[in-house]
Amino acid sequence: MSGTNPFDLSRHLSSEAKARVANPMKAIWKLIQQQPNVVMLANGDPHFSLYPIRKVDFEVASIENQDPVKSWTASRLSARTLLLTSSSSNRSALPLNLGLQYANGAGRPEAQRAAAALTQFYHAPPDHITTLTLGNFDGITKCLRLLGEPGDKFLADEFAFRAVTNAGVPQGIEWISVKMDGCGMIPESLEEILVRWDEGRGKRPHVLYVVPCGQNPTGSTLSLERRRKIYEIAQLYDLVIIEDDPYYFLQYPSDPNDSSLVPSFLSLDTDGRVIRLDSLSKILAPGLRLGWLTSSAAFHEHLIALTDSSTQHPHGFGQVFLAELLSEHGWGLAGFDRWVSSLREEYRRRRDFFLEEFERRIGGSGLVNARAPEAGMFVWIRVNIEKHPRYQNGINAGDGAAARARTNVAQLMQELFMCCLDSGLVIVPASVFALSGDSVWDDSAVPIEDRVYFLRATFAGTEEIMRKGLEILANVLQTFFAE
Amino acid sequence: MSGTNPFDLSRHLSSEAKARVANPMKAIWKLIQQQPNVVMLANGDPHFSLYPIRKVDFEVASIENQDPVKSWTASRLSARTLLLTSSSSNRSALPLNLGLQYANGAGRPEAQRAAAALTQFYHAPPDHITTLTLGNFDGITKCLRLLGEPGDKFLADEFAFRAVTNAGVPQGIEWISVKMDGCGMIPESLEEILVRWDEGRGKRPHVLYVVPCGQNPTGSTLSLERRRKIYEIAQLYDLVIIEDDPYYFLQYPSDPNDSSLVPSFLSLDTDGRVIRLDSLSKILAPGLRLGWLTSSAAFHEHLIALTDSSTQHPHGFGQVFLAELLSEHGWGLAGFDRWVSSLREEYRRRRDFFLEEFERRIGGSGLVNARAPEAGMFVWIRVNIEKHPRYQNGINAGDGAAARARTNVAQLMQELFMCCLDSGLVIVPASVFALSGDSVWDDSAVPIEDRVYFLRATFAGTEEIMRKGLEILANVLQTFFAE
């Protein structure tokens, strides 16, 4: 294969997306937009004077302090706050009479512009449009609907957030896992799958799902070099890249004086083949259920149509919150940046605390080791399960999903997980993330069923939780390996 | 066919719903729930001390006055209000530290209980569970995913909210229209379709979508007698009934002293075959994007799984709002009932104003007539298009979607719509709601293409809008028919 594929959306759309039928009212709306000052006897839109909600106030952290997260957590209830207000007054960035009315799938332009400004500031994408979502999970699953045809094979990391991959299975998407190392997805492994693809087994994968920063569960972050390679492969083999990046703002470069963030796939996307998903869950609060994705205009149109025919536009309170937060009366863009920079330092401190405790309590045991993650919330702990007295190699694991396993790693790790739980610690075994390899492509190496010797731990909790948790883990490991 | 079918969910599920794969983490959560006081190193849940949101205040209408909507709209900015507050304090009905954290698809129990209490109060369903939704559109389209298999034929009113029916088309649902009269869906027409069904044409329809009160667009309301008949037919032919009831609280019985509401399908549902959707859009504000559905436990489980693998749980701000509003610090159930009763009177006044203006300006013309709707927001205006000088009967309409038409009704109505628009009035022609009949079932009567002689008008607007709108309509009708 030579040269690159120009990006053509129609090659990638599911037949469901192509079969979408516009609401006949849309034609009427188009006519109306050309006609200003019409009298509307058309829509069942409750008049805003009948909304029983006059005003919404959000009391949020002040960002006046240089390190706002530190002062917020240190001063607690006495910490300074800022009041964001939305009413039907036109001083509001998104007045309630508009924010609480029906909208189309794009939501209110005030909220959309706020999200777009963030993306412009951090990624300066070449030629892209913002679509509001109900958070990244909603955004990703909409992308799966948009792109996924029964029988399609999509690509993902071999250790992945399975809630996402599983969400595609009922609609007929099959996942092909790409090998990883400590630095995330290996570009050469990705290319190998595509080079060696036999069309007799079905259409070559055309979608790559990737979490580039602080990947869940491995905590790995793709270097700029790897991103460039993966993007080139995507061009060569005509892949759409779904870039799910909830941990983008939580990056901890090894040089603490380096405040730069690794450029996103979106920022490299000259073709319009990247759909990037941004989330507020990790930097503000998960329950907001508001995020946005950034894509080419062609994807945007289809995503709006899909939104109009499923969830409809995001909730008004969230849109109002986002618009007010990023307005001049709120944090603004500069304040937002100050908050996330400060939050980054907070999580770096938590990460370092975790790693110090880990080192102090278990590091010398030789039973486990861990790499310092450069982003996110997770430490991927390698358990040296080969040292366990009952470790076995060369066994035949029998039938079923784990038929390729040649060791009892999975079984021992399950025992270890249960020992932790019995001792009052919840830590997640790698098996729940393992995307079973396709034996056709996974013939040259140790199958993933024999590599589930990891535990995922988070440093998102408090120091007390980390201290207690690692204390239990240290004790359990000693007992477990000494049996 | 004799006797009734016992309800069996598995006969109704789509293969997509049956193929849904649980997140492997779920198994871990089940284990954890049996283990109190564990230390969690598991989840990437930001600690609530890092949410930059301390407090949310919603300033809502006071319901102290006997007729709260009247005082709210009359006193405007000086109207009394009530402050709903949620913070992380346990005085909140749903504290922010919980409301803004991740939840499963069921959302927070506090919000779910608030919605369930409303349903219990108004419908006392025999044996059902509440599932939060992102509004009725989200709820309905989730039901379509749950029940709809490619090639399935679902039943709906012949004039329907096409955004809903169209949403099912890309996934392969075909719609069969059921005849209506001024009182809504005709049970005998429904039964005729099912009796005469030829299995050679595909599986008999197993889902009925119905808007029982103030149906959009016809404004019709099904009597209790019709509901009983339709429910019996559903039992006999094993239908699932999707009861979409956003106008339930806006019912205007002909006797103004009668404050009773027609019992819902849900309240009659001894079998568990009804899925009822409740919305806050028409009674509080559309932009809330929060509603709930009520179903059997078996449907609930599947809907939660679908929610977990698509939109995820509803937004925290909405859940907090609902929980606070219905708590003892908010309106409570009694206050809610007072608000909706008062709102009902407000919309009855608007409806009466509309009908009086209509009668005064156009009633004597003989060109149009309208029936007083007993619920909702819409008046369905019959245009006596047969009186138009260019009206033709007995024509052959040619190919395409309107091939069955034998008159030029559709064309004249389109002209009338454009004349209104040119005069500055937007009113919706029936054609955008017409669900094209299936010629196999629609052979004995005038096809719907010849019956699109209606206009849908709303009385949801202000008196000024209604007055202006009807003035334009009167003038346009005179000119249009006098040509």
From TrEMBL, chains A, B:
Its cofactor is pyridoxal 5'-phosphate. It comes from the Eukaryota. Residues 101-467 form the Aminotransferase class I/classII large domain. GO terms for biological process: alpha-amino acid metabolic process. Keywords: Aminotransferase, Pyridoxal phosphate, Transferase. The keyword tRNA processing does not apply. InterPro entries: Aminotransferase_I/II_large, Class-I_PLP-dep_aminotransf, PyrdxlP-dep_Trfase, PyrdxlP-dep_Trfase_major. GO terms for molecular function: pyridoxal phosphate binding; transaminase activity. Belongs to the class-I pyridoxal-phosphate-dependent aminotransferase family. This is L-tyrosine:2-oxoglutarate aminotransferase. It comes from Obba rivulosa.
